[in-house]
Request: fold
Amino acid sequence: MTKVCLTISSYRFDDSVAALLEKAALLVPRVFWRVIVVDSLGTSRIPSLIRERGWDFIEYHSADTNLGSAGNLARRLELAAATDADFAYALNHDGELSEETVTRLVAAASRVQGVGAVYPLRVLANKGGRYDFTGTFRLLLPTRSRKEPPPTALLDTYWGSSNGTLYSLAPVRQGLKPWADLWMGWEDLGYGWLLAKHGFRQVIVRDAVFADFYEFRGLGTARLGAQVSQKPAWYSYYNARNLILIGKRIRPAWDVGASFACRIALECGTTALFRSQKRERFSLMARGVWDGLFGRTGQLR
Reply:
C-alpha cells in the first residue's frame, strides 16, 4: 500500500486547521497514513484538540519563529521524509481536502517513472473559474484557460503551486528540498525547477481538480475581466528578490532569465497602473532586486 502523509501548514489559522483535521481524521488510514502539522508561532488550541480527540496519527510541530511559506514547506517535507511514507500531500490552511482528488493524484504517481511532484488541475475559484496551466512551460507567463483539456493523459510541467500537490519523498531523501531561506514567495517555482534539473518528472493530473481560492481583486473593467492578486506591499520585496535568487541557483537558459526580468517588469507596470501604496512597493522591489543580486536571504527585517 502506498503511504501518504498529509502535511498541513499554518500560521495563526487555528480554526481552518482544526476543520481540516476533522476531515482528515475520516480519511485515516484509508487515504492518509499519517498527518503532520507545522505551525509557526502556534497556540495551544490545535495540540489540545489533538489530545481531546485522541488522534495519535497526527504529529504537531510548532516553530518558535515565523517560518514563512518556504520554510514551512521545507520543514513539512523533511518531517514526512523522516517517516516511512512514500509521498507527502501538501496543503495550506485554506486548501480544500478532497478524497477523490488525492486518490487520483496517488494513482497517477504510481504510474510515473522517476516522479518528483504530481499536481492537480488547478481551478482559480476567485478568478472566473479558469484553469491554471502556468507551469506547463518554463516562461513565467500567465497561461490559463476556461476550457478543461480532456482527462486522457498526464500533462508534463515544470512547476506548480505547492497547495494541493503530491510530492514524492524520494528527492527529499536525496537532499533535494525547497529553499527555506527564500522565506516567502516563489518557493514552489524554485523547488519545481530543482526537481526538473535533477531529472525528476512533474505532471498535472487532468482529472484531479483542486479549487484554489487565491486572493484576486477586479480592476473595475468587467468587460476585460482583468484582475490582480491582493498581496500586501511587503510581498513586492520577495516577489523580486526570490526570482533573482532562484535564477542564480538554477542557472536557467537565457530565455528563462529574460522571462524573470520581464516578470519583474510586469509587476512594476501592474503596480504603477493598479496597485495602492505605489511608492512603498517600488521601494521594496528595488531593495529586493538589490538583495537578490547580492545573495541576501531570509525574512526582511
Remarks:
- The CA atoms of residues 9 and 72 lie 6 Å apart.
